[in-house]
Amino acid sequence: MNELKLRKMLEQFYLEDIGERDLTSTSIFSKDDRGEAVLISKEDGIFSGSSVVEQGYFLMDPFAEIRLLKKDGEAVKKGEKIAIAHSSIRTILSSERVILNLVQRMSGIATAVNQAVKQLNSTHTKITDTRKTTPGLRMLEKYAVRSGGGCNHRYGLYDTVMIKDNHIGFCGSIKKAVEKARHSIGHTVKIEVEIESEKQLYEAIEANADIIMFDNRSPEEVKRFAELTPKSIITEASGGITHELLPLFGNTGVDYISLGFLTHSVKSLDISLYMNNKEEMA
Predict the structure, then answer these.
(1) pLDDT value, residue 276
(2) What pLDDT does 145 receive?
(3) Residue from 61, 194, 203, 236 carrying the catalytic annotation
């Protein structure tokens, strides 16, 4: 987690929500009024977002005291406390929605990834994410994937060459596309090629791709394609793979399975904030 980037993100989120000031909190409480708040999970899941909790409070109140009761990637049960914050009441109330929104989403992603890893039940194949993330939240969502036991695919268009069907169509062939890309990039950058048939698989192998993605293929096709691919080339399966279908891919031998639903349609974990009447840290 890039803490500097996180603080900049939180600044923007607070400016969006608070604007000139939190009209309700500032009209009721003075800047010296202090209190304690507890984050509690209202359902079972996997927690992610400790840095959001810490930086979210410290940004608003440098004297806040934060006690994290759960680590990123740790299981939480319904009714369990996640964190306790002792801070100004204004800070607690003004930052509540931003912190909760982010932590709920990150924990929802971590929970979905953890479920996917268990459903896949493979000692070889790894679960990875995609670029189908919420604009502005990619760093946090990809961190949440790691919290849940998954891996990260490329972060954006800038860190890996990924040649898909439209690139191939415009260029004329997989071979031409790979050759042109290889000529333009540095030696540290990998080239991935998306294929949909056995013919394209052999073309990608001949073009010496670093990674080959089997797009929208059945478990049987993925297994066969993985067996045909040299071990020196990383293999990936993607497209149309749901939670229910994951067990069928566990023994295909593919190196990675990328799942868009981990970030584009995940359900947030239900987490709430409650004020605590105690003045000391519990």
Answers:
(1) 81
(2) 98
(3) 194
* List 22, 215, 236, 255, catalytic entry: 215
Q: At residue 111, what is the residue type?
A: T
Question: Helix or strand or coil: residue 281?
Answer: coil
Q: What is the CATH number of the domain that holds 50?
A: 3.90.1170.20
Is 132 catalytic? The answer is yes
- Which residue is associated with the tokens 């698989």? 201
pLDDT at 40: 97
153: amino acid identity, one letter: H
Contact 50, 1 (CB under 8 A): no
Among residues 7, 42, 81, 97, which one is catalytic?
A: 97
Give yes or no: 165 in active site. Answer: no
Q: How far apart are CA 76 and CA 115, in angstroms?
A: 14
267 is known as an active-site residue: no
d(CA 151, CA 262): 11
Check whether residue 218 and residue 86 sit in a common domain.
no
Q: Does residue 213 have a pLDDT over 60? A: yes
- For 97-119, the pLDDT digits (tens) are 999 999 999 999 999 999 999 99
Residues 104, 153: one domain? no
Summarize pLDDT for 1-41 with one digit per residue, the tens.
Answer: 899 999 999 999 999 999 999 999 999 999 999 999 999 99
194 is a catalytic site residue: yes
Asked if residue 277 has pLDDT above 80, the reply is: no
Asked if residue 240 and residue 151 are part of one domain, the reply reads yes
Please, what is the Cα angle at 196 between 193 and 197, to 5 degrees?
110
